[in-house]
């Protein structure tokens, strides 16, 4: 690769650690981009892209030069579904290590106007939310909202009746005291953390919270199962459609 060629699209997304759908996560094609047509690679296993001169920011990760995270998200949008585009937008604004704000995502999407994926980006922005911890939290939130249920708060403190924080909840309805947890087996290998999670969920239940636990089998084609459990919890706690 010459100095005028950088990693882009799905390859840059891999380098940045984006949550990718399996078809992209397992694709071994190398995606590279250049602003100079004469430097566009044409060889087996490599897909070359043209990028507009001076309109794409670059980043260096472990000595690899790539398109910057926001530009990578924009470039990748045409290869993603709407929900997958939202998942990565949420990841860019994640709770623990955010790299962008919603305002920055909006500016990046506007700068991408007229290029492939621009319509997808515009549709994704109103659905994107900050403070997520996992792609399944985003997927579950989208399922809940599309079913016509109220939108939950993301990684919101769960308080007992004395105002003491019991834990951060994945998806929380504080007024109705409903906690929706995605069981991603994150701490099953850490027995102490897993035991603490169980204890805190038990405390929440004892304090009057309705806890709904969702696992992978309740999403995708079986999303109606997750919706049913969340709706039942909200109705039990006094919500009225």
Quick recap:
With 241 residues, the chain is an alpha+beta fold. The chain contains nine helices and ten strands.
Q: Average pLDDT value?
A: 93
Please tally the helical runs, counting DSSP H or I stretches of 4 or more residues: 9
Question: Could you state the order of secondary-structure elements as H and E?
Answer: EHHEEEEEHHHHHEEEHEH
What percent strand?
15-25%
Spatial extent as radius of gyration:
21 Å
Protein name: DUF559 domain-containing protein
Write the layout of secondary structure elements.
Elements lengths: L4 E3 L1 H8 L5 H4 L4 E5 L7 E2 L2 E5 L7 E4 L2 E4 L1 H8 L5 H11 L9 H10 L6 H7 L10 H12 L6 E7 L5 E9 L4 E5 L8 H16 L3 E5 L8 H14 L5
Helix pairs in contact: 1-3, 3-4, 4-6, 4-7
Protein name: DUF559 domain-containing protein
InterPro entries: Restrct_endonuc-II-like (IPR011335)
Task: Please supply descriptive tags for the structure shown above.
241 residues, alpha+beta, Endonuclease, Chain A, 9 helices, 10 strands, DUF559 domain-containing protein, Restrct_endonuc-II-like
How would you sum up this structure, described in words?
This protein is α+β, with helices and mostly antiparallel strands. It has two domains: 5-127, no CATH class; 135-236, Endonuclease, Chain A, CATH 3.40.960. It has nine helices and ten strands. It has helices at residues 9-16, 22-25, 69-76, 82-92, 102-111, 118-124, 135-146, 191-206, 223-236, and strands spanning 5-7, 30-34, 42-43, 46-50, 58-61, 64-67, 153-159, 165-173, 178-182, 210-214. The strands form three sheets. Strands 1-2-4-3 form a four-stranded mixed β-sheet. A four-stranded mixed β-sheet has the order 7-8-9-10. Helix 1 packs across helix 3 and helix 4 (82-92) crosses helix 6. The longest helix is centred in the C-terminal third of the chain and has 16 residues, at 191-206. The radius of gyration is 21 Å and the shape is elongated.
């Amino acid at each position: 690769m010459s100095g005028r060629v950088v990693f882009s699209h799905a390859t840059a997304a891999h380098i940045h650690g984006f949550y990718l759908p399996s078809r992209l996560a397992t694709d071994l094609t190398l995606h590279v981009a250049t602003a100079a047509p004469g430097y566009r690679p044409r060889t087996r296993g490599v897909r070359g892209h043209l990028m507009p001169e001076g309109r794409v920011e670059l980043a260096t990760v472990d000595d690899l030069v790539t398109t910057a995270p926001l530009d990578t998200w924009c470039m990748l949008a045409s290869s993603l579904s709407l929900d997958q585009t939202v998942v990565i937008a949420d990841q860019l604004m994640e709770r623990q290590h955010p790299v962008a704000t919603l305002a920055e995502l909006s500016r990046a999407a506007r700068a991408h106007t007229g290029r492939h994926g621009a319509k997808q980006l515009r549709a994704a922005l109103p659905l994107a939310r900050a403070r997520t911890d996992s792609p399944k939290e985003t997927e579950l939130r989208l399922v809940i909202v599309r079913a016509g249920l109220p939108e939950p708060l993301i990684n919101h403190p769960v308080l007992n009746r004395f105002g003491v924080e019991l834990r951060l909840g994945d998806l929380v309805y504080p007024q109705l005291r409903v906690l929706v947890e995605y069981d991603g087996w994150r701490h099953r290998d850490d027995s102490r953390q897993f035991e603490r999670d169980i204890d805190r969920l038990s405390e929440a239940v004892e304090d009057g919270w309705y806890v709904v636990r969702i696992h992978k089998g309740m999403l995708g084609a079986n999303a109606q199962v997750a919706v049913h459990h969340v709706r039942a919890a909200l109705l039990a706690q006094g919500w009225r459609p």
